[in-house]
Amino acid sequence: MASAALGKQDGVAKQASLTVVKADRYSDGQAKLAPLIWIDALKQVYDDVKTNHKGSAVVSMSLGFNDAEDGDSDDVKTLMMALKDLFPKVLKPLIGDLDTPVFVTAGNLAH
């Protein structure tokens, strides 16, 4: 993906710079829930865009989450519903306050 965007020969934005944010599940030696990792990563992106790239950034993410399934515990179902509600609220400041388009891959669960 990065080479298609920033590649010196064939990239569509050859003069652009790339900032990578790693969503590390074990960054402090302890495992974290995936939604907390995503929110932390998005905060890092927000801070970087605000400080270094306001008005000139594009965010591309490849992440996703599925609906809770019948066999999942009530805690998992509650977490997934909360995440679906929270995710757009977390993205809104990045898009609205910093005028940054955000692209997220579309899922294909083969249904």
Provide a brief overview of the structure.
The chain is mostly helical and 111 residues long. Helix content is 44%, strand content 5%.
Write up this protein.
Helix content is 44%, strand content 5%. It has helices at 2-6, 34-53, 74-97; strands at residues 59-61, 102-104. The model has no long low-confidence stretch (mean pLDDT 76).
Q: Would you tell me the structural class of the helices and strands?
A: mainly alpha
The biggest beta sheet is recorded as: 2 strands, parallel
Distance N terminus to C terminus? 26 Å
Shape: elongated
The averaged pLDDT comes out at 76
Question: Beta fraction of the residues?
Answer: 5-15%
Supply the number of helical segments.
3
The succession of helices and strands, N to C, reads: HHEHE
Parts with pLDDT < 50 across at least 5 consecutive residues: none
Q: Care to count the β-strands?
A: 2
Question: Keywords, please?
Answer:
3 helices; mainly alpha; elongated; two-stranded parallel sheet; single chain; 111 residues
Question: What is the element layout, followed by pairings?
Answer:
Layout (H helix, E strand, L loop, with lengths): L1 H5 L27 H20 L5 E3 L12 H24 L4 E3 L7
Parallel strand pairs: 1-2
Helix pairs in contact: 2-3
